[in-house]
Specification:
Structural class: alpha+beta
Oligomer: single chain
Distance between the termini: 45 Å
Number of domains: 3
CATH topology of the largest domain: D-Maltodextrin-Binding Protein, domain 2
Radius of gyration: 31 Å
Number of strands: 15
Number of helices: 10
Strand content: 15-25%
CATH architecture of the largest domain: 3-Layer(aba) Sandwich
Largest sheet: 5 strands, mixed
């Protein structure tokens, strides 16, 4: 049968005093170490003995010794109390300076750019912090999953999160390979996409993402079709370069392919602008020094474009 155990209120009261008296074999010695009066030490021991229900010390006018109950209590209480003190020191250290494990949930597409050079420079500046990057397309519950912060496109960051920009706003552009356009032609308007193979993106929710456009200030979403579905932007990018179909991607992610001629953009006049990529976390009041150091490090560096995904 499952039992419910609780620590009685005040159960640790007097334990430090007991350990000091046992160490010094003296109430006066314990009082001097603890910075209190001998009568206060004596009172604390009496209260502890009453709570436990056993006499812990044998007292004479010349000496103080441990009873059998006191010896057994000392054997178990001393290592346990030392562990509590050590645990307090560890926790205090994490609250006083940047140290410990910093866990970040990020889309797979941003990992290379985070590592070069943001994470590398942060680790050099904060040697007591270990950084763990967990690449996932899921929109993680940071608190439940044990993450300090996450990185996502601005439109996917919940309104109750504190958000720090990691990139300027950028466009979502439609791109394809030169080989694809040579075989299929170029779309001249959004309606032309019905006649094209479009690489689709399945969101973490399982739904297929619509393609978003801006038609003279009017946001429009279009359902497209095509032979290939990917779960993140890296997969979409690779498929577009291979000529499988058209892709709609964050412009910074397509920039290298456009520069080298592996990709060509179309429908530029309809490309929508998105807020950019953000670091987000639950509350300013709960920030540990390790996360504060990372936020300050991000802010101190020149803002640069980064790709993202939900």
């Amino acid at each position: 049968m499952k039992q419910n155990f609780t620590v009685r209120q005040g159960a640790l009261d007097g334990v430090e005093v007991f350990l000091s008296v046992a160490e010094h074999r003296s109430f006066r010695g314990a009082a001097a170490q603890l910075g209190v009066t001998p009568s206060a030490v004596s009172q604390a021991v009496r209260v502890l003995e009453a709570r436990i229900g056993a006499t812990l010390f044998i007292r004479t006018t010349r000496s103080v010794g441990l009873t059998e109950a006191g010896e057994r209590f000392l054997a178990r209480a001393k290592p346990a109390f030392e562990e509590l003190v050590a645990a307090s020191e560890v926790a205090r250290g994490l609250g006083e300076r940047p140290s410990g494990l910093l866990r970040l949930s990020v889309p797979r597409a941003v990992v290379p750019i985070l590592l070069e050079p943001l994470i590398a420079s942060f680790c050099k500046a904060n040697p007591e912090v270990e950084v763990e990057i967990v690449a996932s397309k899921e929109l993680i519950d940071l608190a439940t999953e044990g993450f300090d912060a996450g990185i996502r496109l601005g439109q996917f960051v919940a309104a109750d999160m504190i958000a720090v920009p990691l990139s300027p706003p950028f466009r979502f552009v439609v791109v394809g390979s030169p080989g694809y356009f040579a075989a299929r032609g170029r779309p001249e308007c959004m309606d032309d996409l019905r006649e094209h193979a479009c690489i689709r993106w399945r969101r973490s929710s399982g739904a297929l993402a619509l393609w978003s456009f801006n038609d003279h200030g009017q946001p429009i979403e279009i359902a497209v079709s095509g032979p290939f579905i990917a779960s993140d932007f890296l997969g979409i990018l690779g498929a577009a370069i291979e000529g499988i179909g058209l892709a709609q991607l964050p412009e910074p992610m397509a920039a290298e392919g456009l520069k080298t001629g592996k990709l060509v953009h179309v429908l530029d006049e309809y490309a929508p602008m998105v807020p950019g990529v953000f670091l987000y976390y639950p509350s300013r009041r709960q920030i540990m020094p390790k996360l504060r150091a990372f936020i300050d490090h991000v802010k101190s560096r020149a803002t640069r474009s980064m790709p993202g995904g939900s």
